[in-house]
Amino acid sequence: MEYKNLVFKVKGGIGYVTLNRPDKLNSLNTELMDELRHVLDMIEADPKVKVVILTGSGRAFSAGFDISAKGDEPEIYERSADEWRSVLKRNIDTFLKIWHSGKPYIAAINGYALAGACELAQLCDIKIASERAVLGEPEIRFGTGPPVLITPFSVGLSKAKELLLTGEMLSAQEAERVGMINRVVPHDQLIAECEKTARKLIKIAQVGVKFNKASINRAFENMGFLNTIYQNLELVTLFDTSRTEEQETFNQIRKEKGLRAALDWRDALFKEEE
Q1: How many angstroms separate the CA atoms of 46 and 9, rounded?
Q2: Is the overall model pTM greater than 0.85, yes or no?
Q3: C-beta neighbour count of 271 within 10 angstroms
Q4: Residue 74 has pLDDT above 80, yes or no
Q5: pLDDT for res 140
Q6: Which residue out of 35, 137, 139, 195 is catalytically annotated?
Q7: Could you tell me if 120 and 95 are in contact, meaning their C-beta atoms sit under 8 angstroms apart?
Q8: CATH superfamily membership of 6-243
Q9: Where in the chain are the domains?
Q10: Catalytic pick from 73, 75, 83, 119?
Q11: How many CA atoms, within 13 angstroms, populate the side-chain half-sphere of residue 55?
């Protein structure tokens, strides 16, 4: 398969997956998600790939799912719940390929990692961020929910409620402090630091890495991680397909003036509180 929205290469046992829509801050559209699903399956089947580094091109890891206006495509709340649930489940199942993989994934968070992409980064096994990174789920501020509810497992109850009820975003340093990521490094050292960690993992017997990852994941699954994800799918489906004043206003501005104007409208509502 020829990739148009991501770049994939293998070097020295390390697979490099780079989300590659820099003009759109690597937002996750249908085409990119299809390609991501394909490359994750290919990586799992390739014995030459021992560890994976996932990053983004340009100034973002990813701004999350693509919410730009798409011609005559209906808004989310204009779709049936069953239709939208199928879309969400397909995206969730794609993200969870990283969770279920027998290979370790390192997120190289080079810039913005927002909304669904914040969740994608958290699903990676080790998260290393540039000092320029910003993480969070601001989509909550215009009336949609987090599709993959991993944040409570990353940061605990109190901080998760603050982040997921307010849509507040975190600097890389604050994300490290609350446990969302492992560490912060200078921007120009990000990939080198991820490669250093990857080489450590390659030196360990791969069967050990595979089963140790599975053991840790099972611990969280026994605490209800996967049940939480799929129960949240039902709630987010209801949330997203409910018509709200905030969604309608946001979408109207987006259609008339563009996505940037809609985001500016959303953010302006909260500036005096921050």
Answers
A1: 12
A2: yes
A3: 7
A4: no
A5: 82
A6: 139
A7: yes
A8: 2-enoyl-CoA Hydratase; Chain A, domain 1 (3.90.226.10)
A9: 6-243
A10: 119
A11: 23
